[in-house]
Specification:
With 490 residues, the protein is mostly helical. It is built from 15 helices and no strands. The C terminus is likely disordered.
């Protein structure tokens, strides 16, 4: 008996020592993995800092603005994914079209109506733009805290008001960020390229944050993800205050009649800005139409090559890739005219929509989703550059507010058309109709641009004085003419 007990004790001791060795190896492996992860994250951070601060962006503050906006985009993604499963955003796709249309109007129209009022407020506080941007971030953090408390009891009113407030404040941040871009522009970078950098890093940050937020929502729940978003926004608010001081513009005293001049400027923003706004509105109209049109075609099994979930994921991936491509091409095409870029994006969208209508199918739908997202991103970046170049600083934020409202309304209107057309069209018919609309818009803009260019050339020619004619040479009366003599004559 004593021998058996000794053997059992020996076995237990060996098992304990083996467990301790395994624990030490596990701890060592975990430590090495943690150090490798931290080292990798540090290298990625250094590489990102080199990219964001390249070409003088570290001296002007553009690099810090890019990093701040990318983190802001990640915070918005956290909020969106956290609310994706709540009552506010939890409307199933297979609901009646009328309910989806009502959902679209309720969630988008109030935001588009409020947006024009954001710009004038930002213009009044030009001397404190850093604090305005920080205020939008701090306010979103507080709204996330309120929504986190409302998730548990299912307080729909608080969720709706909080989500709408986050949307409006996010747009206010974007309007203010676009207005200050010329203040942080390095000498070696164009406006299109600077806007493209901001968009590219924002899209990458959102792409990383979406799966992270989805995993955190499944693990911790929506309330804790909203609390994480709250911390993110509060920290970003501190970094916004630490932007360079030259971001703030000194306030200008309004002259007599300044309000009338301001609103007259907003109603007449110039031909270049008007042309770019109309072209982008046409692209946004098509983008909204395409989203809901293809969504209900998939739901009604008119695109049956793959399961519905796989098809929707494929279309979403194509749209994300198109947005990244648009930002990258904008950075590459920085030396080209933004007006030409806007018209080319509309032309590419029109041609792709026509080809998709003719060769309608799953892969054609994927292609048109990619091109639509590409054109939307590239056209918007060119439009931002045109507004930043053409519009004075005193009304730049107001102009951006009007631009954002117009594009948002165009997207909503296109989505409503897509809902209605998907009820009777099985695919090619709806795309054919939108192709005709896009072609008419493109033709009208090209004709108006040609007329404007000719009128400008004629005006320049009329204002240029003709070159002075030279007087004919007169004969000098004092000059003598040497007679011709024959050298052989005597």
């Amino acid at each position: 008996m004593w021998t058996l007990a000794r053997r059992v004790g020996h076995v237990l001791a060996e098992a304990g020592r083996a467990s301790m060795r395994a624990g030490r190896r596990t701890a060592s492996g975990t430590r090495r993995m943690g150090l490798a992860t931290a080292s990798g994250a540090q290298r990625v951070g250094h590489a990102t800092r080199r990219l964001t601060h390249a070409h003088g962006a570290d001296r002007t503050g553009l690099g810090r603005l890019i990093e701040l906006t990318a983190a802001n985009s990640a915070g918005d993604s956290l909020v969106t994914l956290a609310l994706a499963g709540t009552i506010f955003f939890g409307l199933p796709v297979n609901e009646a079209r009328g309910q989806v249309a009502l959902y679209l109007v309720i969630t988008m129209i109030p935001f588009a109506v409020v947006a024009p009022f954001v710009g004038p407020v930002l213009d009044k506080f030009r001397s404190g733009r850093r604090y305005v941007m920080a205020g939008t971030l701090f306010a979103r953090g507080l709204l996330c805290f309120a929504m986190a408390a409302a998730v548990g009891p299912g307080d729909v009113l608080t969720l709706f008001a909080g989500a709408l407030g986050v949307l409006v404040l996010s747009k206010a941040y974007n309007v203010s960020r676009a207005a200050i871009m010329p203040s942080v522009l390095p000498a070696d970078i164009t406006l299109v390229s600077a806007n493209a950098r901001v968009a590219l890093f924002s899209l990458v940050a959102a792409g990383v944050a979406v799966p992270t937020a989805a995993g955190l929502t499944a693990w911790l729940g929506a309330a804790w993800v909203l609390r994480i978003a709250m911390v993110v926004f509060l920290v970003l608010g501190v970094f916004a205050v630490r932007l360079p001081r030259h971001v703030d513009s000194p306030g200008l005293e309004e002259e007599e009649g300044g309000e009338r001049a301001r609103w007259r400027t907003l109603l007449n923003v110039g031909p270049a800005v008007t042309e770019a706004m109309r072209a982008n509105a046409a692209i946004r109209l098509f983008s909204g139409f395409l989203l809901f049109y293809l969504l209900f075609l998939v739901q009604d099994e008119h695109l049956k090559d793959l399961p519905a979930t796989t098809t929707i994921a494929l279309l979403a991936g194509a749209a994300g890739l198109g947005g990244l491509a648009g930002a990258a091409v904008a950075n590459w095409a920085r030396n080209h005219s933004p007006q030409v870029i806007v018209l080319l994006t509309l032309a590419v969208t029109t041609v792709t929509a026509g080809v998709t209508a003719f060769l309608f199918g799953l892969w054609a739908a994927v292609a048109v989703a990619l091109v639509a997202a590409f054109a939307q991103e590239l056209g918007k970046l060119a439009l931002d550059a045109i507004v930043q170049r053409e519009i004075g600083e005193e009304v730049r934020s107001s102009t951006f507010g009007v631009v954002e409202a117009l594009l948002q309304l165009a997207w909503v209107f296109g989505g409503l058309i897509g809902l209605l057309v998907s009820d009777w069209s099985t695919g090619p018919g709806g795309l054919t109709g939108l192709t005709v609309v896009l072609a008419l818009a493109l033709g009208w803009l090209v004709v108006r641009r040609r007329v404007r260019v000719r009128a400008r050339e004629a005006k320049v020619s009329a204002s240029t004085p003709p070159p002075a004619r030279q007087a004919p040479a007169t004969k000098d009366p004092t000059a003598t003419t040497k007679p011709l003599t024959n050298p052989h004559s005597g």
